[in-house]
Specification:
By secondary structure, this protein is of the alpha/beta class. Helix content is about 45%, strand content about 15%. Strands 5-4-3-6 form a four-stranded parallel sheet. The protein has a two-stranded antiparallel ribbon with strand order 1-2. The radius of gyration is 16 Å and the shape is globular.
Length: about 150
């Protein structure tokens, strides 16, 4: 159950506590990350292509925060949907998207609820691709995200 306390101050709903209730903890990190977003997206696009995900594919961005990846991927021709828990980030991403003239399906919600909140299917999800690249340098032997969602 969300917010259920376990032990000395541990809660099962830690993402909401960190990213919504204690926004000031995470926000400076995200603001600093904006400067490297172009390089991150270049790497992400390379990973998507290595996995056989073509330009124009539908990509899900879990926990998109400021939208720095989703906006840039949309500008490159991918079709994006994003799900995030924090209303502050959702409004920030929507405003940034409007300013850049991109159409992203920004959705508020927890990642575990993605199947009920965001219309699929998706060709890939950005967070799984980052995780796979970090864990397994040989992407050809990894399990790909392609076709796993939807």
């Amino acid at each position: 159950m969300p917010g259920e306390t376990k032990g000395a101050g541990y809660t099962t709903d830690w993402p909401r506590r960190l990213f919504v209730e204690q926004l000031e903890v995470h926000l400076p990190f995200l603001q600093a990350a904006e400067g490297r977003a172009d390089a991150e997206v270049t790497t992400l696009v390379d990973l998507l292509r290595d996995l056989g995900v073509s330009d124009g594919a539908r990509v899900l961005d879990f926990a998109y925060s400021t939208g720095r990846h989703a906006i840039r991927l949309t500008q490159l021709g991918f079709r994006l949907a994003g799900i995030d828990l924090a209303p502050f980030y959702i409004e920030h991403a929507r405003q940034a998207g409007r300013e850049k003239g991109v159409d992203v399906d920004w959705v508020e919600g927890a990642g575990l609820d993605v199947h009920w909140l965001v219309d699929g299917p998706f060709d890939a999800d950005s967070k799984n691709i980052w995780i796979m690249a970090t864990v397994d340098e040989d992407l050809t032997s990894s399990t790909t995200a392609k076709g796993q969602l939807g």
